[in-house]
């Protein structure tokens, strides 16, 4: 079986096991708990920030819900904007959200440890980027730690070096993905 067929089969299996959909109002708590598990305290968004983000822009907050367990296994969230560079204020200032913005700033890709290594992060990203492409967005921008750069490169992102972000007091690298020219 070639790589493309293998990837399509893996994606199909993930869609059978997980429901990929936008967050529901009552799931803000779960998302906040996942964030606390996936990131160290200095990097994680607070419970209030996560709940506010889910409430302010649920259509920008894609979750993977385990169909059998009835819980969130992971999520990818962002905010639409006309800005093209990442800044830390996107993490906590939901007033920067522009529903018709031409770009999307990706704020968090979180997958619980027990669901890692199965391609779930990759599929969350694939589904999310496809939805944003269909909305006509131009570019997706994210920041990541140095050890995550190869993962995002495999997802099609291009690196731009050190970001201006100082979130959590650690160095972040900015990357982007062209959705529409």
UniProtKB/TrEMBL annotation:
Gene Ontology molecular functions: N-acetyltransferase activity
Q: Which residues form a coiled coil?
A: none
The answer, when asked if Transferase is one of the entry's keywords, is yes
Matching entries from Gene3D superfamilies are given as:
3.40.630.30
Q: Which InterPro entries match?
A: Acyl_CoA_acyltransferase, GNAT_dom, SNAT-like
* Keyword annotations from UniProtKB, A to Z: Acyltransferase, Transferase
Q: Which Pfam families match?
A: Acetyltransf_1
The record places domain N-acetyltransferase at 18-180
In the record, which residues are listed under signal peptide?
Answer: none
Name the CDD domains on file. NAT_SF
Q: Which domain of life is it from?
A: Bacteria
Q: What is this protein called?
A: GNAT family N-acetyltransferase
């Amino acid at each position: 079986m070639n790589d493309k067929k293998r990837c399509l089969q893996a994606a199909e299996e993930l869609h059978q096991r997980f429901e990929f959909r936008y967050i529901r109002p009552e799931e803000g708590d779960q998302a906040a708990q996942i964030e606390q598990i996936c990131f160290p305290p200095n990097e994680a968004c607070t419970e209030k920030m996560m709940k506010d983000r889910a409430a302010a822009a649920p259509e920008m907050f894609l979750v993977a819900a385990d169909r059998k367990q009835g819980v969130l296994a992971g999520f990818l969230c962002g905010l639409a904007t006309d800005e093209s560079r990442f800044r830390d204020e996107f993490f906590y200032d939901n007033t920067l959200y522009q529903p018709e913005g031409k770009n999307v700033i990706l704020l968090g890709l979180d997958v619980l440890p027990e669901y890692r290594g199965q391609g779930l992060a990759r599929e969350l990203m694939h589904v999310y980027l496809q939805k944003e492409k269909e909305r006509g967005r131009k570019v997706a921008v994210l920041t990541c730690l140095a050890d995550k750069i190869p993962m995002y490169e495999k997802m099609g992102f291009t690196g731009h070096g050190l970001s201006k972000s100082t979130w959590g007091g650690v160095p972040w690298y900015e990357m982007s993905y062209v959705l529409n020219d």
